[in-house]
């Protein structure tokens, strides 16, 4: 890796093209071609100075994505490590950063659970029936979104009502192997000045035994029963003014796999309430848009384990985390000045209140948190276009959290369009931070461990440079798009246990560099394929050791094939290279006992989804997963779920 990275970086700076700022995907007519996540100001995708991948509703359906974790598997620079099937813990490592360094938003509101010990997000819990679009921003974005956006941001955008129809019902019904049943129904529309959305989905599966086959054969299937409901009501009394409210509820019940010996009656319930009310209006002939939002989330996770033949011990663990957010945001369109055009200023203030109540573990070694904290952040962003081809942005933010040092972050970026050769060159840099979680500051474990209220935020500085180029051939203006992005970051003040394991300190540092390479081919209207190869070097800066669960190589190949009219076939091949394992393993491996960190071997998973648009508003689909029945372990001891097939129908009347 040490030899490979400089050569790839030199090749990039020598003139290779860079990974697309937005993955080349065809979008539905109802989806805007603007991006909000990258700048907080609606901006055309090709003019955003950041590495952003956009997955549309069409992508979700044609590729058969069921969970958020599954949808993100082919995103360049992003690695998913899931401990089993749907519902099980799924962690994201975005550009080599820790799993707690990715901020997840729903319509711009943070979803990360404050009661999770590291304030990380479980990507295996989210179903996608009510999601219109997923935007993934790679790179430090704390200047835009504050804490936890050290590695990047994932923004889920819910479905929107069509402006010209009063009633649009839609739904799906599917079933398949492992006793899997997936059903969803919804309706949306616009009636006069009002619009609405009602959506519900249920998902159940018997699941798989995700415990690796090389371990003692005590595993059993761990299934999932999940329910999602979403409701939105919007009012647009006059053009440019809107008020809306959104409620979303999710509950998942599932069994848990564990290693080295799978527990037969270890189960969990994970549910979340989410709600927001927001209003927005345009002032001064639309030059100034201002909006106010009040949002709240409550996460409640319960884990129960009863006595069984393996152990007489029991557990009843409860985690409750709430967050209330008040956000005032503004966008002011600025006048041009000579060669400068398309100016915009964004600014606002966000205040949040977080509370955690949790208790877990045995009575003799109980882990508890009972704490609250306030955070207030103010931000400003500025963007302009020079000579109709150079887009420049700058951002600055200051966050103040009760009990520890304030944090100021910044971000700069530019995109240069070179239409003469069909290229776009992009460069950006900035800083990020992740505030310590409430467990890290105030957690208690028995009489031996106390959190450290004086912890500092984890901090990073990073930059990237790259470009993408479209190549015409055979009468097609974009027959091929080649791309590459070089990124680098340094992280300091990482939080870890002290030598006595009785508290936490800011003791670690990391250095990360990598390259994201991409190639998209469009030889015909009926065929398009994209290959992405990410090379990552993530190291402990003190020891030089590779960071766990960050594979050096990750490759994805996706395609969209239309062999005959109204039929779409979407295959996906995912290769994950070898990665070190940071979790300690203590069990027999093929008869040999060991207690030391292991590497996760490489693995390949092949999926395919086929859709037949049988009628104008009704389709039949088949989703096949892990066709080769790979036993690849994304995390030590946990295998990829086995081969499965789901057949169903989808309609939108």
From TrEMBL:
Residues 46-153 form the TonB-dependent receptor plug domain. InterPro entries: Beta-barrel_TonB, Beta-barrel_TonB_sf, Plug_dom, Plug_dom_sf, TonB-dep_rcpt-like. One of its GO terms (molecular function) is siderophore uptake transmembrane transporter activity. Residues 1-26 form the signal peptide. The keyword Membrane applies. It is found in: Cell outer membrane. Keywords: Cell outer membrane, Ion transport, Membrane, Signal, TonB box, Transmembrane, Transmembrane beta strand, Transport. Residues 229-627 form the TonB-dependent receptor-like beta-barrel domain. The keyword Transmembrane applies. One of its GO terms (cellular component) is cell outer membrane. Its main location: membrane. It is a multi-pass membrane protein. GO terms for biological process: siderophore transmembrane transport. Gene3D superfamilies: TonB-dependent receptor, beta-barrel domain, TonB-dependent receptor, plug domain. Belongs to the TonB-dependent receptor family. This is Outer membrane vitamin B12 receptor BtuB.
């Amino acid at each position: 890796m040490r030899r490979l990275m400089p050569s790839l970086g030199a090749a990039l700076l020598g003139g290779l093209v860079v990974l697309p700022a937005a993955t080349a995907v065809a979008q539905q007519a109802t989806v805007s071609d603007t991006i909000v996540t990258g700048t907080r100001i609606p901006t055309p995708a090709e003019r955003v100075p950041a590495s952003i991948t956009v997955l549309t509703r069409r992508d979700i359906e044609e590729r058969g994505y069921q969970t958020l974790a599954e949808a993100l598997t082919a995103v360049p620079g992003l690695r998913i490590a899931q401990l089993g099937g749907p519902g099980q813990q799924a962690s994201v490592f975005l550009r080599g950063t820790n799993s707690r360094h990715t901020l997840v938003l729903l319509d711009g509101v943070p979803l990360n659970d404050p009661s999770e010990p590291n304030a990380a997000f479980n990507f295996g819990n989210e179903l996608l029936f009510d999601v219109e679009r997923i935007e993934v921003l790679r790179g430090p974005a704390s200047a835009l979104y504050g804490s936890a956006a050290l590695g990047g941001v994932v923004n889920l955008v819910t479905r929107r009502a069509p402006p010209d129809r009063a009633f649009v019902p839609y739904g799906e019904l599917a079933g398949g192997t492992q006793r899997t049943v997936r059903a969803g129904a919804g309706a949306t529309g616009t009636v006069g000045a009002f619009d609405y959305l009602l959506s519900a989905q249920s998902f159940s599966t018997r699941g798989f035994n995700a415990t690796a086959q090389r371990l003692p054969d005590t595993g059993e299937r761990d299934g999932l029963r999940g329910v999602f409901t979403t409701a939105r009501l919007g009012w647009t009394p006059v053009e440019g003014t809107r008020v809306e409210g959104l409620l979303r509820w999710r509950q998942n019940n599932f069994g848990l796999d564990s290693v080295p010996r799978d527990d037969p009656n270890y189960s969990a319930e994970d549910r979340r309430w989410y709600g927001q009310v927001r209003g927005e209006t345009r002032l001064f002939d639309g030059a100034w848009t201002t909006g106010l939002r009040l949002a709240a989330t409550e996460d409640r996770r319960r884990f129960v384990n009863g006595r069984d033949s393996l152990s007489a011990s029991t557990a009843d663990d409860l985690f409750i985390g709430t967050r209330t957010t008040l956000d005032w945001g503004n966008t002011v369109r600025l006048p041009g000045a000579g060669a400068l055009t398309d100016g915009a200023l964004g600014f606002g203030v966000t205040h949040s209140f977080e509370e955690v109540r949790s208790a877990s573990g045995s009575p003799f070694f109980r882990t508890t948190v009972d704490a609250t904290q306030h955070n207030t952040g103010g931000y400003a962003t500025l963007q302009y276009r020079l000579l109709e081809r150079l887009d420049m942005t700058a951002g600055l933010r200051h966050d103040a959290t009760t009990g520890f040092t304030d944090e100021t972050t910044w971000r700069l970026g530019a995109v240069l369009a070179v239409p003469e050769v069909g290229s776009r060159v992009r460069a950006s840099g900035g800083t990020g931070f992740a505030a310590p979680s409430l467990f890290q500051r105030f957690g208690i474990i028995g009489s031996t461990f106390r959190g450290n209220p004086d912890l500092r935020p984890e901090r990073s500085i990073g930059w990237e440079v790259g470009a993408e180029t479209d190549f015409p051939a055979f009468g097609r203006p974009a027959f091929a798009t080649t791309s590459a992005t070089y990124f680098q970051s340094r992280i300091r003040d990482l939080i870890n246990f002290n030598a006595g394991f009785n508290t936490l300190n800011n003791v670690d540092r990391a250095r990360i560099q990598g390259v994201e390479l991409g190639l998209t081919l469009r030889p015909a209207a009926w065929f398009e394929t994209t290959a992405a190869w990410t090379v990552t070097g993530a190291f402990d800066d003190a020891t030089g050791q590779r960071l766990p669960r960050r594979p050096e190589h990750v490759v994805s190949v996706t395609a969209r094939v239309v062999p005959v009219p109204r039929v779409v076939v979407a295959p996906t091949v995912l290769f994950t290279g070898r990665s070190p394992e940071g979790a300690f393993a203590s069990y027999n491996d093929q008869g040999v006992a060991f207690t030391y960190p292991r590497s996760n071997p490489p693995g390949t998973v092949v999926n395919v989804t086929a859709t037949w648009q049988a009628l104008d508003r009704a389709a039949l689909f088949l989703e096949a997963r892990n066709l080769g029945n790979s036993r690849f372990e994304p995390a030590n001891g946990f295998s990829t779920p086995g081969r499965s097939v789901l057949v169903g129908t989808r309609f939108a009347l």
